[in-house]
Input
Amino acid sequence: MECNLAVSLMHDYLDDDLPKEQQMELKAHLLSCPACRMQFKELEQTDMLMFSLSHHAPSAPLELTQRIMSALPQEKKQQPWLGWIRRHPAITAAAVFLIVMFISSVSFWDQDTQLVVKGNDLDQVVIEGNTVTVPEGKSIAGNLTVENGKTKIYGEVKGNLTVIDGSLYQASTAHISGKVKNIDQALDWLWYKITNAFSDVAYR
Output
């Protein structure tokens, strides 16, 4: 139990309006937290003084009563969204992760225009400027990924072919054994990056 919640439950505890389960949680917190324990003692003493005044001195001056009421510790209002975050930590963590990934990825979306080629057997690939070509009679063993360039397939890709923010040409002689993905939208690109990040973590 956090201190803010403990302070908010003290009044209900002294008024005997707190359920048994929360009473036990509050008592356990008071045993482990000296600051809350001291605040509870002060509140308890004030409550006892108020009880004494109301039963034994009904004619106590109004000014004294107001002074005592103003000395009572103010109950801190808990923001509703903080309570929701505490109740749903997994959803909150996932939302924060997606927001951070989105902001960081989109911020570099327009800046990252350099040609990137990933895959096996890249010595079988011909790269001229921003054009990546798999010549006829050549074979790539595994996946091939091309970012920010033109991709021309005349030979064979024995895996998946992914083209990000670029164009793809497949000749009649081309053979791709896996899936062909052409990603040219920011959200598709972001989803691709997120799934790849998860895949990298899973295989480490």
About this structure: The CA atoms of residues 129 and 149 lie 9 Å apart.
